[in-house]
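Troubleshooting log. The previous structure file for this entry was overwritten by mistake, so regenerating from the original sequence record. Sequence copied from the archived sheet and checked twice against the printout by T.R.
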Amino acid sequence: MSSPTDAAPGSHLSWMGVALEEARRGGEEGEVPVGAVLVRDGVLLGAAHNCPIALHDPTAHAELLVLRAAGQRIGNYRFPDATLYVTLEPCVMCAGALLHARVACLVYGAADPRGGGVESVYHILGDARLNHKVEVISGVRAEESQALLQEFFGARR
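Regenerated output below.
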């Protein structure tokens, strides 16, 4: 099996496109437009967008919802050979979930300078004290991801 970095760069762009579609759906529903997909060996295991408002659940971030859906689908809560694509840098909560789920690789779009848990503010996934490491690829379709967020928040101001 190949590692996430062996994947063709075009596939990262393509899967991030699926995550962006999820984000758009969330925005249309009045949720902050963040979308995520979990992929293993080129197969989509799950897709989700933010839903804390609709579900009355502060933990209903796209990353957690996609991990839950994929876990139900495959009958396991660990994804050591999967890649998570998400349009916004995960928060601390979501970064922690990626560690517990043993996700192999995270590919994200826009950085979150206010609450990013991966590279912008906190560095959860790079903490040497933890027993799992997640490969991180950032900035994939970042401009599109950022534009969705800016349009969403701009319309509410």
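Residues 18 and 127 are 29 Å apart (CA to CA). Archived copy saved in two places this time.
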